[in-house]
Amino acid sequence: MNKNQNIFDIYRKKILIVDDFKDNLELIKNMLEDNGYKNIICVLSAKEAYKELAKNNIGLIILDIMMPEINGIEACRHIKTNALYKDIPIIIVTAKADLQTLKSSFEAGANDYIRKPILDEIELIARVTNALSLKANIDKYKILTITLDEKVQQELKKNRYKEQLLMQQSKQAQMGEMMSMTAHQWRQPLNAVSASAIQLNMKNDMKIITSEDIKETTCFIEKMTQEMSSTINNFMNFSKPTHKKELFSIKQILEDILRLMGAQLKNHNIAFLTDLQERMEIFTYRKDLEHILINLIANARDAFDENKIEDKKILVKSYMRNQKCIIDVIDNAGGIPIDAIERVFEPYFTTKEQGKGTGLGLYMSKKIARENLNGDIDVQNLQDGTLFRIELKGISNE
């Protein structure tokens, strides 16, 4: 069995080819079949494509742009706005590979393109294989996510203690938060890689490509992929459980947190500032302190959105006082309402809009600080914001 067929048949998905000329359909179909792809559906219009999408398990769409009634760009946009089909990769087929056409195609949701007439079978199969590999990885990730979620739910059912249940819910919420942060970190390099690849393809199509262009672009793509890989490593390190105490500085822990949260803070126009005591290190459970700091910084970020502050700032300070390590997280987001500030550490209490908070973050942060870190957390309103103070006892080394 052909390697390409192996990759594709695992998921029992079909390739949908859409073109208003039968000759074009037959040409693409024959090229695919010659390379092991057998599950192929051919249709002559976008309307027919919509019907096939509803009836079949489609894994890839090869879509012509120039079609009567509904053109390929309109069809692409329509398909991508449907939650059921938005993850299906679409390869646009066009005789007009000008910048505006490609821009419109990618804005509509296309994942790749190929020029007409299709003369190079190798190029077609390469683009199809890449698109299908991407889809297979997305599907595997979804299956993995579902499997992990099912395991978590099973564990929660076994857990008969309220405090353990609350802890698990809090961790899940923060995992979702960190996945969102990782997605933000990926968005810019992904866009940059896509733009570089498009530019390189255009130069190749126009026969003006040079070896220097290829070297420059490939080096850039390599750099971007290394950055994305580093982001995944950061996410995995945060997710990895540990029950050992570590010696580290507040500066180190904040640098790790900013690798995850930096893109989000920047997108929210939030200035992140630090005032850290030099050479101060602490010996404690690093993951637990990371959990608390991520939650406090994320809460400050959300408070800025709710209160529409112009000059947004988050300041983290660390210092020693009375043999205690003090970490202050300060924002200028307007403060907490007087009638709510005494309740912020209660379970399920939140000042956020419905659906935007579980009400467990601060409750679990205080519990972790007291039970795991031999410390505590308190809160107070300032003139223009809020100060959360973490006090950790007897764990400093200067």
What report would you give on this structure?
The chain folds into 2 domains: 3-132, Rossmann fold; 246-397, Heat Shock Protein 90 (2-Layer Sandwich), CATH 3.30.565.10. Helices cover 54% and strands 19% of the residues. The chain has helices at residues 3-9, 22-34, 46-55, 72-80, 99-108, 121-158, 162-205, 211-239, 250-267, 286-307, 338-341, 361-371; strands spanning 14-18, 40-43, 58-64, 90-94, 112-115, 246-249, 270-276, 281-284, 312-321, 324-331, 375-381, 386-393, 396-397. The protein has a 5-stranded parallel sheet with strand order 2-1-3-4-5, sandwiched between helices. It is elongated. Mean pLDDT is 81; it is low at 1-11.
Short structural description:
This protein is an alpha/beta fold.
Strand arrangement, largest sheet?
Answer: 2-1-3-4-5
Count of the separate structural domains? 2
- The top level CATH class name of the largest domain: Alpha Beta
- Shape summary: elongated
The succession of helices and strands, N to C, reads: HEHEHEHEHEHHHEHEEHEEHHEEE
Rounded Rg:
26 Å
As a percent range, the share of strand residues is: 15-25%
Helix content: 40-55%
Can you tell me the CATH superfamily of the largest domain? Histidine kinase-like ATPase, C-terminal domain
Stretches with pLDDT under 50, minimum 5 residues = 1-11
CATH architecture of the largest domain: 2-Layer Sandwich
Stated plainly, the CATH topology of the largest domain is called Heat Shock Protein 90
> How many beta-strand segments?
13
Largest sheet, strands/sense/barrel:
5 strands, parallel
Q: What's the end-to-end separation, in Å? A: 64 Å
Mean pLDDT level: 81
How many individual helices?
A: 12
User: How would you describe the oligomerization state of the chains in this entry?
Assistant: single chain
Structural class: alpha/beta
